[in-house]
Predict the structure.
Amino acid sequence: MDFDGWLFERLDAVKRDGLYRTLRKQETALKNKGEKIWASNDYLGLSKDERLITAAQTALNCFGAGSSGSRLTTGNTFWHETLEQTIADFKQTEAALLFSSGYLANIGVLASLPQKGDVILSDQLNHASIVDGCRLSKAETIVYRHIDMADLEEKLASVQSRNRRFIVTDGVFSMDGTIAPLDRIMALAKQYQAFVIADDAHATGVLGENGGGTSEYFGVCPDVVIGTLSKAVGTEGGFAAGSNIFIDFLLNHARTFIFQTALPPAICAAAHTAFDIISDMYDTRRELLSSVKTIKTRLADMGFTVRGGDTPIIAVIIGDAKTAVSVAALLEKKGICAPAIRPPSVPDGESRIRLTVTADRSLQDIDGLTEAFDSIRKELNINK
Ligand SMILES: Cc1ncc(COP(=O)(O)O)c(C=O)c1O
């Protein structure tokens, strides 16, 4: 069989399982006004904030469109260093290091930190970038049941003879909206002498009084905090935060930092402005979480299985992939963008509509969303 024929067969199998993916083009911010997007990770609406755009434009004029090299060669600027200090202050750590994405931050940390003879205990529902980082590590990875502290403790107890133990967890789980019990994880880590790595991609800007993330929410300090600038921060890029020596270690060992072109300075300037704004968005955070509660209650009353903690992510579990795709298509017809999430992003039989609530959603939008779910439920005979 020729090359394309072989790939055609592989894609055909994906299509038969209802798992075929295609790209969906978004219009510009202005043109998009008609459609309600209920799937964006831009929780605080900062990606289109004039203050961020102006900050990026000013830096663009000074530094140009690209950074021209890795941070260790020609790509390091005032804006990279300023943003790292801002992130460290925001996360209340000694230092921080930028990566080109949250994905690369997880890979960089997990592939360089745990060593052969160590063990990584990883939550079952951790993000793909954590899974891939664990795969690249020379340490053994043991998966514990999702936020199951009894299982984590049992597994920690069984690996006491290993050199070192690392617990790695999403702060807020991207596909379920659940919150990792970081206070209990830290207590177990202390008891069983383990280090904790928390990926706060979806919690940064949203959880905690100041938006500091799961560490602020629980009042704890994990050894390593990972994050992304691409969700509530409204820009692009990732970071790791922790002690000075940890950041120095990463700068010398993390391959996704060393061998990667630095982020454009204009993006760093915009992200720096975003952190300034985020700290003051107390009311926005409160209103956002109140909208989440309203939507969850209404959908649960209709008989939907709804998952998630006090976070902007709501998982509406549909079950099989094809029905989830039909629900998403009907939502789209009603002017609501909320794509179906299917395996391998979620386990088999747990395909879902992953809703996210953003700060610009009105009560009228919420009515429109829940009415759409109600009519689709009747049309497709779901929850009977
Ligand atoms: C929990 C988690 N970690 C990391 C990432 C990757 O972040 P980025 O999009 O900046 O690569 C994501 C993004 O989808 C995520 O949900």
